[in-house]
Amino acid sequence: VCSEVSDHICYSGYASKWRFLASKSGQILLSTPMTYSRASELFKKELVKEGLDAKDYGHHSLQSGGATIAAALGIPDRLLQRQGGWRTAKTNNNYIDESK
Fold it and tell me: Gene3D superfamilies from the entry (predicted)?
């Protein structure tokens, strides 16, 4: 799903799978898998660089944004569910903001 949408907005599954993190300077290769706390730290650091208040954003903000964009682009529900690590299609829908 990520490559079809945009690698820099795909955040789901990062703890065990991701070795790349998008940033303004490109992608950073990491020598170890991304941990939940490190991903959060880097995400919030990028928000601050953009002049945003990092306290207003969290993992669900990014998951919701990514799922919303993917759904708007017509990415199949089963791919959203797999990428998001969600067990049911109902859970997918909790992350998609249809007003966007």
Answer: Intergrase catalytic core
